[in-house]
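Hi,

Apologies if this is the wrong queue. I'm a grad student, and the batch job for Loganic acid O-methyltransferase from Sesamum angolense produced an output file that my downstream script rejects. I'm not sure whether the problem is my script or the file. Here is the sequence I used:
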Amino acid sequence: MQRGVVDVAKPIIEEAIKLKLDISQLCSNGLMNSFWIARSLQQKFQSERLVSQIPDFYVLFNDQVTNDFNTLFRSLPPERHYQAVGLPGSYHGRLLPKASLHFAYSSWALHWLSQVPTAVADPTSPAWNKGRVHYLGARQEVVDAYSSQHAKDIETFLEARAQELVSGGLMVLVLSGVIPTSAENSNTSYTDIPTEMALIGSCLTDMAKKGGVSEAKIDSFNFPIYFSFPEELKAIIVRNGSYNIERMEMLENPGKHTLSCANARASFHRATLEGLLIDHFGCEITDELFDRYAHKLQVASPAVLHPDNDKSILIFVLLKHT
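Support response: The file is valid. Your script probably expects a header line. Output copied below for reference.
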């Protein structure tokens, strides 16, 4: 599924580099001894007949400090035209020196929040999300708490990258989002469809009824994931004021068609979510939880497995730093 994100975004990114990256401006600013990028730009230089001026390329791979960068480096092609650098740390904050980055690419990451909104786990708050593990289908106070945290995190991300990008540098964002259910309200969440995280929550509830999980543990757990609406994201970018929006569109993810089997879908979400679940509930519950989840997908909610019923989208944004 993640490969589907990369495949659908790659040709658009290549076109964006070709049409929107002004090499002559960067050269005139004396910034081209080395090119700190997130994708190779060699073809751009060749197409503009600047082969003699091709700089050294550096690709910086960012992930959390717990990521296995050794596995990443072993998977890179030996015959490559760039130097690879591991950059551990949270992308919600600064990672690089000022004005050192020429091209940034965030792939299917910005729907992850820096933290669960504090209010949704507070029993004294109107936004307490008792009995649920996500905001989809929850009360409006819960949705608002998630939306507020998302806006804060995106703003922090944009500000950090604005300090790191050179003037005229490009940034591509590809993140998971949803289309509003109402044309009149661009912030209407999907409350009428079963979501896969809600199904995981129902599995936890079933386990609690049998004494396998504490209800209090469920009440204090929420997934730190928010699916943005395109107009919502656009408003945050405009409000930041550090970028021009060169291109913004919604894309279909062809990778979702690879997960039409309940066991494959359960394995995919286990790989993504298991760490969070183990940190909160312990490792003893995960086998039973995802066995139950696969069963519910197959029996209770088979419609979820049909790709045409997947309401998620990819939001593609091309930004140029002012």
